[in-house]
Specification:
Layout: E1 9-11, H1 20-26, H2 37-53, E2 58-64, H3 66-77, E3 83-88, H4 91-102, E4 106-111, H5 120-129, E5 135-141, H6 153-162, E6 168-172, E7 191-195, E8 205-211, H7 213-219, H8 231-235, H9 250-267, H10 269-291, E9 297-298, E10 310-314, H11 319-331, E11 333-335, E12 352-356, H12 363-379, H13 388-397
Parallel strand pairs: 1-11, 3-4, 3-5, 5-6, 6-7
Antiparallel strand pairs: 2-8, 7-8, 9-10, 10-12
């Protein structure tokens, strides 16, 4: 007899748990797409999206996922034959690079492996050697969802400035917007991409490209931008349909409006960041206790390089897959697979898992996830240290509320 009956918990790194209020806001008949409430709601999203990103720049909204955001961002600033520098700390850094190659860019990849964030000094050296400034953009994933490595965007901007290089700094914040701190303008990020399905707590289906004046000036020199990807009509629409180059994602707009109400106007982005930091540290505390007497270890050793949105773990094959399957079948809990950590046909692929702790998440949800994992470790006879739940609870108990 399984104990999995009841509300299922999705603890993967996106799609995240959707608040009931968001789902209820979407549960409605289709609205008028030509006039009235929907138009006003869409207009209202813009300042709040910018508030989450901490930017005075512009935001283009697309119907699509994170890959759509990648392509949209590149399509507006990169010509065929332009060179870009891609920083990879996991699978998604390579994915953005592959997208750039498919669009005809020349791509140089700095690969920092799967257990470290990007090294600003290496980036500076590559940029300093680019005397002719052939590199037009630096692509960096702030948090790589596969490895959970978090790259210091301030340090990467510092590398660009120290090298005196004019390339655009383009950041993928898909995994971590509204989870890990982001100060787009203050940190000197020129283009930032995100999606609706993680920290923004809305189902997959909307993608966002934020950009500043420097990036828009580069857009003016791009030879060909298709009407669908062009960010200018979406940010300066003469008619409502131009926001989305056609029919709007009607129900996502209602859901996102509610999510932004919760993030910006109720909890506040600073409090959202603080909550994610505490819950992430609770996960790390539990992991450290379990790993003291067993095979479990955090993929990222340096706490400064760990994301507050997702934690990637190593536990050795076949324990990763065994644990995930046990939790799904017996506890109603779904953990993330070890995406990109090794080839899926390699037996070692079964030695990883990830915990998503992003978006609509509180202490009892996090403690329930950790308690279920401990039950799985015990049931499967996987060696682990004690005191994990007490350690995690202590972190949550110490959280300071405003």
């Amino acid at each position: 007899m399984s104990l999995a009956h009841g509300r299922q918990t999705l603890a993967i790194p996106g799609p995240s748990v959707m608040p009931e209020r968001v789902l209820q806001a979407m549960h409605r008949p289709a609205p008028n797409i030509y006039t009235g409430e929907l138009i006003d709601l869409t207009h209202s999203l813009v300042p709040d999206l910018k508030a989450v990103a901490r930017t005075e720049g512009k935001v283009a909204m697309y119907i699509g996922n994170g890959h759509a955001a990648w392509e949209a961002s590149l399509a507006n600033v990169v010509n065929r034959g332009d060179k870009v520098l891609a920083l990879a700390s996991g699978r998604f850094g390579h994915g953005w690079a592959e997208m750039a190659q498919a669009l005809g860019a020349e791509v140089e990849i700095l690969d920092f492996g799967k257990r470290d964030a990007a090294d600003p000094q290496q980036v500076r050296e590559v940029l300093a050697a680019d005397k002719e400034h052939r590199i037009k953009a630096v692509l960096v994933v702030q948090v790589d969802t596969s490895s959970s490595a978090k790259t210091d965007l301030v340090a990467i901007r510092g590398a660009l400035d120290a090298a005196g290089h004019p390339a655009l700094l383009m950041a993928d914040c898909i995994a971590c917007l509204a989870c890990d701190r982001l100060e787009m303008d203050e940190w000197g990020v020129d283009v930032m991409v995100a999606g609706s399905q993680k920290g923004l707590m809305t189902p997959p289906g909307m993608a966002f490209v934020f950009y500043n004046e420097k990036a828009d000036a580069v857009r003016a020199g791009v030879e060909f931008v298709s009407s669908y990807w062009d960010w200018r009509p979406r940010t300066e629409p003469d008619m409502y349909y131009q926001y989305f180059c056609g029919t709007a994602p009607t129900h996502h707009i209602y859901g996102l409006r509610t999510a932004l109400d919760m993030i910006v106007h109720e909890e506040g982005i600073e409090a959202v960041w603080a909550r994610h930091e505490t819950l992430a540290k609770a996960v790390w505390a539990a992991m450290g206790a379990w790993g003291a007497e067993g095979p479990l270890e955090l993929n990222i050793a340096d706490p400064a390089q760990r994301s507050h949105a997702v934690t990637s773990a190593r536990i050795g094959a076949p324990h990763g897959t065994e644990l995930r399957e046990w939790l799904t079948e017996n506890a109603g809990l779904t953990l993330g697979i070890g995406l990109g950590m090794t080839d899926s046909d390699d037996p070692a692929w079964h030695g990883f898992f990830r915990i998503g702790h992003m978006g609509h998440l509180n202490t009892h949800m996090m403690m329930g996830t950790l308690g279920s994992i401990e039950a799985g470790l015990t049931a499967l006879g996987i060696a682990h240290g004690g005191g994990a739940l007490a350690s995690a609870a202590a972190v949550c108990a110490a959280h300071k509320t405003a």
